[in-house]
Design brief:
Number of strands of chain A: 10
Order of helices and strands of chain B: HHHHHHHHHEEHHHHHHHHHHHHHHHH
Mean pLDDT of chain B: 80
Distance between the termini of chain B: 59 Å
Distance between the termini of chain A: 83 Å
Number of helices of chain B: 25
Low-confidence stretches of chain A: 1-24
CATH topology of the largest domain in chain A: D-Maltodextrin-Binding Protein, domain 2
Mean pLDDT of chain A: 86
Structural class of chain B: mainly alpha
Shape of chain A: elongated
Radius of gyration of chain B: 25 Å
Largest sheet of chain B: 2 strands, antiparallel
Largest sheet of chain A: 5 strands, mixed
Number of helices of chain A: 13
Low-confidence stretches of chain B: 226-232, 494-499, 556-565
Strand content of chain B: under 5%
Helix content of chain B: 55-70%
Number of domains of chain B: 3
Radius of gyration of chain A: 23 Å
Oligomer: heterodimer
CATH superfamily of the largest domain in chain A: Bordetella uptake gene, domain 1
Helix content of chain A: 40-55%
Strand order of the largest sheet of chain A: 2-1-3-10-4
Order of helices and strands of chain A: HHEHEHEHEEEHEHEHEHHEHHH
Chain lengths: 350, 657
C-alpha cells in the first residue's frame, strides 16, 4: 500500500516535468530544454502596470513559459524614472535571468548620459524587439509644414531634454523655427494644449498619435522616417528623397542640403521607437544561447501577437541579431548627434 | 433633447437589467476588498481587469469599469478613520479629523458621516456630469495652465484657514512643503535638482511614501504602550451612532454642496487628482465653517464631511475629460481610455453623440457603485467600529510592517523607505511640537502643479500664446481666491492659542530645519539652470521665515517650555519604536525586506520578555518573527510580484527579495 501511494505521489510530482518535456519546443538548441527547465525569469517593466510596456510583457510571458519551460514573473519597477528596473537587470547575478523591456533610444540615452549608473550599453545583450514604430508630429488640423511661411511653430513638450531628438533635430534639418513650451504633464495634457490653440503640435509615437487622431480635431503632420509610412501614405516624412527636408532645402547649396539630410537621418535614427528586450551581458554563454532561442520563438508566436493586438498593441518582432544591430545603430547615432543635441538644447531651452 | 433622454433611458436599462446589475455589484465588492490590501490600489486592479475583460461585451465592460472607478474611493477612508492609515492617498485628508473622532470614542459617527457624505458627493458629481455633458467640450478647453495655476494658488490660500493660531510655524511648514515638493527635477528642463546624485530621487520624493510616513508611521510610533493610550476611550462615547453621522451630514448639506463643487472642478482638471480635491475642500471647509472652529484637526465632523464629499464628487468630474476629449484626468482615466479603445469606443464627438447610451451606462455604473459602497459602508459601521476596541499597542507592529511593505511596493524602490522614515520623523516632530501639519501637506501636494503651471504660463506668455483676457474661468478662480483671503482676513480669528514659551526641543527643531533649508538655498543659488527663479524664490522666502521663526522664539529660550515634564518631547516609550523605524531602511538594504521586518518584530517584542513567562514567550516571539518573514516573502513573491535588489548580506542562500 505504502509503495503504491509513494509511486502515485512520485508520478504526480513529476508529471508537470514529464509533460513539459514532452511539449518542449523542438526549435530550441540541444540542451536548452534541460538548461532552462524550471528556471525563473523576470521581465522588468520600467513603468507602472497597464502601460504599453506592461501589456507587451504580460502578453509575452505565457509564450516564454510555454516555449522555454521557464517560470516568468512580470515585475513593474517605475522608480527613478525606470532606472530601478534598468539597474535590477544590469546588476543581476549571472544565474538570475532578468530581462528589461525598454525603448532602445531611452536605454542608450540613459546609459550614455548618466555615468552614475555605472553601466554602458556594452553591459547589455539584446534579446529581441517587440515592436518598432516611427515618431510623429501631431498637431492642428489646418497646419501644413510644407507650405512656405508657416512661421515660428510652438511645440508642446514634456521637457526640453526629452524632445531634442524628436523636435530639436528635425527643425534644425528643415530650417524651421520652433519654440518649446515645456512642462506639460503627459500625452493627454499635450494634446489638450494643441486643442486649446496654445501650441501648434506635439511629438508622439505613431501608435499614440493614431489613437489621438480618433477623437478628431488633430492630424499627423509629419512622420519622422526616411520614406512614406505604409499606414499614412499621404503624410509627409522627414528624411530622404521626397521628404520634407528635401522639399524645404530645394535651391540651397548641395553641401548644405547634404548636411541637412544628415541631421534629418540622425533624427530618424534617434527618434524611431523600438521596444527592445535586453538582459545582462554577465549571463553565461550557454544560457544566453537558450534565451535567444526562446525569445526568438516567443516573439513570432501567433499567441503573443493576438494577445497584444487584442489590447490595441501592434507587434513587429525582430530577433536577437537584428535587435543588437539596432541597439548598436542607436549608440552610433547618439554619439554622432551629441554636439548637435547640445546646440539644440542651448537654443531651445526657454 | 429627445435623443439625450432616450440615451439616458438606455443607459439606465443597461445598468438595472438582469443579470447586468450583478456586474457593478460584484465590481464594487471587488474594488472594496482590493482597496484594503496594502499597496494594491485601484490602478493595479484595473490593469488586471483590462486583460480579463478583453472578450466581454462592451456594455458589461463599461459596467465593470464604472464600478471599479467608484468602488475603491470610500473604503480607503475606513482605515484612515479607524487606524489613521489612509487606504489611498486621497483619503489621507479624512484621517485629520476622522481618526481623532475614532480616538475619542466616536468611530460610528465618523464612519457614517464619511459614507453619507461620499454618497451625496457622488450623486452630486454624477448629476452635474449629466447636465454638463452637452456643453462639456468648450468648457474643458477653457482649462489650461493658467486655470490650473490659479487653482493651486486657491488651494494654498486655504492654508490661511488652517493656521491653527500659529501663523509663523504654518508659513515655515508651508515653505518646507513647497521646497521638498521640488526635489527631483526641474519640470521644464528635466535637469536634476537636490537629488545629491541619487537616481532614485529623479522623480521626486514619492508622494505615497510621504503620506504613509508623515501620517501613519509618525502616529504609530506613539502607540506602543505609552501614556497617550490612556486617553483612548475603550468604549463608544455617548451618542456615537450611525444615525448621528447621517444627521450630521444632512445638517451640513450646504457644506456638502460646496465641497462637491470643489471636487467636481478638481476632477475635471486633468492630472490634479483626488488628493488635491480633498485637501482643497478641507481648507475651504475650515475657512467657511460657522461657529467654533477650534475642533478642526481634533475630531470635528465637518472635517470628515467636506473632504469625503469632494473626493467622491471628483470621480464624476474625472470622467469628463476622458469621455469628451480622450484626455485622462487621473490614473484611473488612463485605464478607462485603454478599455474604451480596446472595445471600439472613440472619445470625443462619438461618446457625446452616437455612443451616448454607452456613456450613460458608464456614468450610471459609477453612480451605482458609489451608492453601493456607501450603503455597504453604513451597514458595516457597527462591525467596523468594533475594530477600534482592538488593543492598539498590538496592532501597531502589524501596521508598521504593512506600512513598510506598502512603501516599497509602490515604486519598487527600497530607497523610498528612507523617504517614508524621514517624513515619519518630520510628522512626529510636528505632532510633538503641535506645529500645523495640514499646510505642509497641502503645499507638498499642490507644489508641483503650481510650479509646472506657472512655468507654462510664463512660456506661453513669452511666445504670445496666452491671452489673459480670454480666460474667464481663470478670473473666476482668482476672484474666488481673493474673496477667500479677504473673507478670512475680516472674520474673527479662530482658536488663537495663548502665547507660548518656546521649549528647548522646539528651538532645536526650528534650527535644524532652518539649517536644512539654508543648505537647499545655497545649492539652489549656486546650482545653475536646474534651479528656476521659482525654486530660488521659494528657498529664499522659506529661509527668511525660518530665520524669523528662530528670532521670534527668542534667546535665551525657556528650558521649561510649554511641554509639561509629564509629556517630554521624546518619551521613553517612543524611543524603541523610533529607533527600530529609523533602522528599518538600512536593515532592508542589508538583509532584505522580509528579514528586516522579521528583525523589527523580534526587537519590538523582546522587551516583553522581562515582564512575563520567558519560557513561554520566547518561542512565541521567535515564531512571530519567523511568520512575518514568511508572510512578507510570500506577499512580495506571489501577490505583489516584486523583485527587489539582492540584499548585501542574504541571510538565507537564494534570497533576492
Amino acid at each position: 500500500m505504502f509503495l503504491k501511494v509513494f509511486a502515485a505521489g512520485t508520478a504526480l510530482a513529476f508529471a508537470p516535468v514529464v509533460i513539459s518535456q514532452g511539449h518542449a519546443n523542438p526549435a530550441l538548441p540541444a540542451g536548452c530544454a534541460e538548461r532552462m527547465q524550471g528556471q525563473r525569469l523576470t521581465l522588468a517593466v520600467p513603468n507602472a502596470a497597464g502601460g504599453g510596456f506592461d501589456i507587451y510583457a504580460r502578453s509575452l510571458a505565457p509564450e516564454l513559459e510555454r516555449i522555454g519551460g521557464v517560470t516568468v514573473r512580470v515585475s513593474n519597477m517605475p522608480g527613478g524614472g525606470g532606472k530601478a528596473a534598468l539597474l535590477r537587470v544590469a546588476d543581476a547575478p549571472p544565474d538570475d535571468f532578468a530581462v528589461l523591456i525598454e525603448n532602445a533610444g531611452d536605454l542608450v540615452a540613459e546609459l550614455l548620459e548618466d555615468p552614475s549608473l555605472g553601466h554602458t550599453p556594452e553591459d547589455f545583450r539584446a534579446l529581441g524587439i517587440v515592436q518598432r514604430e516611427p515618431e510623429t508630429w501631431v498637431g492642428r488640423a489646418d497646419l501644413d509644414l510644407a507650405s512656405v511661411g508657416t512661421g515660428p511653430l510652438v511645440a508642446a513638450v514634456s521637457s526640453v531634454e526629452a524632445n531634442l531628438a524628436t523636435v530639436g533635430l528635425p527643425t534644425m534639418a528643415t530650417g524651421q523655427t520652433v519654440r518649446f513650451v515645456a512642462g506639460y504633464a503627459g500625452s493627454g495634457d499635450q494634446f489638450a494644449s494643441v486643442l486649446r490653440g496654445e501650441t501648434d503640435f506635439t511629438s508622439k509615437a505613431l501608435g499614440t498619435a493614431r489613437r489621438a487622431m480618433k477623437s478628431g480635431d488633430m492630424k499627423v503632420l509629419l512622420v519622422l522616417s526616411d520614406g512614406p509610412d505604409p499606414m499614412l501614405p499621404d503624410v509627409p516624412w522627414l528624411a530622404g528623397e521626397g521628404g520634407l527636408v528635401a522639399k524645404l532645402t530645394e535651391g540651397l547649396p548641395e553641401a548644405e542640403r547634404a548636411e541637412r539630410q544628415r541631421i534629418a537621418q540622425l533624427a530618424v535614427s534617434l527618434s524611431s521607437g523600438a521596444r527592445i528586450l535586453v538582459n545582462s551581458a554577465a549571463v553565461p554563454e550557454d544560457a544566453q544561447v537558450c534565451l535567444n532561442a526562446i525569445f526568438d520563438a516567443a516573439l513570432v508566436s501567433p499567441a503573443f501577437r493576438d494577445a497584444a493586438q487584442a489590447q490595441g498593441r501592434e507587434v513587429t518582432p525582430l530577433g536577437a541579431q537584428d535587435a543588437a544591430r539596432i541597439l548598436g545603430q542607436k549608440v552610433d547615432a547618439y554619439v554622432q548627434a551629441a554636439p548637435l543635441l547640445a546646440t539644440a538644447a542651448a537654443q531651445l531651452r526657454p | 433633447m429627445s435623443d439625450t433622454l432616450a440615451a439616458l433611458g438606455i443607459g439606465l436599462q443597461n445598468v438595472f437589467s438582469w443579470p447586468n446589475f450583478l456586474i457593478p455589484v460584484l465590481g464594487t465588492a471587488l474594488a472594496m476588498i482590493v482597496s484594503f490590501l496594502p499597496g494594491i490600489g485601484a490602478a493595479s486592479l484595473a490593469a488586471v481587469m483590462v486583460v480579463l475583460t478583453l472578450h466581454w461585451d462592451p456594455v458589461q465592460v463599461l459596467l465593470l469599469f464604472g464600478a471599479l472607478t467608484g468602488g475603491a474611493t470610500f473604503m480607503g477612508s475606513v482605515t484612515a478613520i479607524l487606524f489613521g492609515i489612509p487606504g489611498n492617498a486621497a483619503s489621507s485628508v479624512t484621517l485629520l479629523d476622522g481618526h481623532p473622532m475614532a480616538h475619542a470614542g466616536r468611530p460610528r459617527t465618523a464612519l457614517a458621516a464619511a459614507a453619507t457624505a461620499s454618497a451625496l458627493g457622488s450623486v452630486f458629481g454624477v448629476l452635474v456630469l449629466i447636465l454638463l455633458l452637452p456643453a462639456i467640450r468648450p468648457l474643458l478647453l477653457q482649462i489650461g495652465p493658467l486655470e490650473r495655476a490659479a487653482l493651486a494658488v486657491w488651494g494654498l490660500a486655504t492654508i490661511i484657514a488652517v493656521l491653527d493660531g500659529r501663523p509663523l510655524q504654518a508659513l515655515a511648514v508651508t515653505g518646507l512643503g513647497l521646497l521638498l515638493a521640488m526635489v527631483g527635477s526641474d519640470p521644464t528642463t528635466s535637469q536634476p535638482r537636490w537629488t545629491f546624485g541619487q537616481f532614485e530621487l529623479a522623480e521626486g520624493l514619492a508622494q505615497g511614501a510621504m503620506l504613509l510616513g508623515f501620517f501613519t508611521l509618525s502616529e504609530v510610533l506613539s502607540w506602543r504602550k505609552s501614556h497617550e493610550l490612556q486617553a483612548v476611550l475603550k468604549s463608544a462615547a455617548q451618542g456615537d451612532t450611525t444615525r448621528a453621522g447621517v444627521i450630521g451630514v444632512i445638517k451640513e448639506r450646504a457644506l456638502v454642496m460646496r465641497a462637491s463643487l470643489i471636487g467636481l472642478l478638481v476632477g475635471i482638471i486633468p492630472g490634479v487628482g483626488g488628493t488635491v480635491a480633498g485637501f482643497v475642500a478641507y481648507g475651504q471647509t475650515v475657512q467657511t465653517a460657522h461657529g467654533d472652529r477650534s475642533g478642526f484637526g481634533k475630531g470635528d465632523i465637518r472635517g470628515v464631511i467636506g473632504p469625503e464629499a469632494a473626493v467622491d464628487a471628483k470621480d464624476g468630474g474625472s470622467l469628463l475629460p476622458v469621455l469628451a476629449l480622450g484626455v485622462p484626468g487621473s490614473e484611473g482615466g488612463v485605464f478607462l481610455l485603454t478599455v474604451l479603445a480596446i472595445h471600439g469606443f472613440v472619445p470625443g464627438s462619438a461618446m457625446l453623440g452616437a455612443d451616448l447610451p454607452f456613456t450613460f451606462t458608464l456614468i450610471f455604473a459609477l453612480l451605482v457603485s458609489n451608492l453601493l459602497t456607501s450603503a455597504l459602508g453604513l451597514a458595516l459601521v457597527p462591525g467596523l467600529a468594533r475594530l477600534t476596541r482592538l488593543p492598539i499597542d498590538r496592532i501597531a507592529l502589524p501596521v508598521i510592517v504593512v506600512g513598510l511593505v506598502t512603501v516599497v511596493q509602490i515604486d519598487g524602490l527600497v530607497s523610498d523607505l528612507f523617504v517614508a522614515v524621514g517624513f515619519a520623523a518630520l510628522g512626529y516632530m510636528f505632532r510633538r511640537l503641535d506645529w500645523p501639519r495640514v499646510p505642509f501637506v497641502i503645499a507638498f501636494v499642490l507644489g508641483p502643479s503650481l510650479e509646472s503651471n506657472l512655468a507654462l504660463v510664463g512660456q506661453l506668455h513669452a511666445v504670445g500664446r496666452l491671452d489673459f483676457g480670454s480666460r474667464p474661468l481663470a478670473w473666476v478662480i482668482i476672484a474666488l481666491t481673493l474673496a477667500s483671503v479677504v473673507w478670512m482676513a475680516t472674520r474673527s480669528r479662530h482658536s488663537t492659542k495663548a502665547t507660548r514659551q518656546t521649549s528647548k526641543a522646539e528651538m532645536g527643531v526650528a534650527l535644524v530645519l532652518g539649517l536644512g533649508v539654508a543648505l537647499f538655498a545655497a545649492i539652489a543659488l549656486t546650482g545653475g539652470s536646474a534651479y528656476s527663479g521659482y525654486a530660488r524664490a521659494v528657498c529664499v522666502a522659506t529661509l527668511g521665515v525660518f530665520v524669523a521663526l528662530v528670532l521670534t522664539q527668542g534667546f535665551p529660550y525657556s528650558r521649561a517650555g510649554d511641554l509639561e515634564p509629564r509629556t517630554p518631547f521624546l518619551p521613553a516609550s517612543h524611543r524603541l519604536p523610533l529607533l527600530l523605524l529609523a533602522a528599518a531602511p538600512a536593515l532592508t538594504l542589508l538583509v532584505g525586506l522580509p528579514a528586516a521586518c522579521g528583525l523589527l518584530v523580534l526587537f519590538w517584542m523582546l522587551p516583553s520578555l522581562r515582564r512575563g513567562n520567558t519560557s513561554l514567550q520566547a518561542p512565541l516571539i521567535a515564531a512571530s518573527a519567523l511568520a512575518t518573514v514568511v508572510l512578507v516573502t510570500l506577499y512580495l513573491d506571489r501577490v505583489a510580484v516584486l523583485d527587489l535588489p539582492a540584499p548585501i548580506v542574504p541571510l538565507l542562500p537564494g534570497w533576492t527579495i
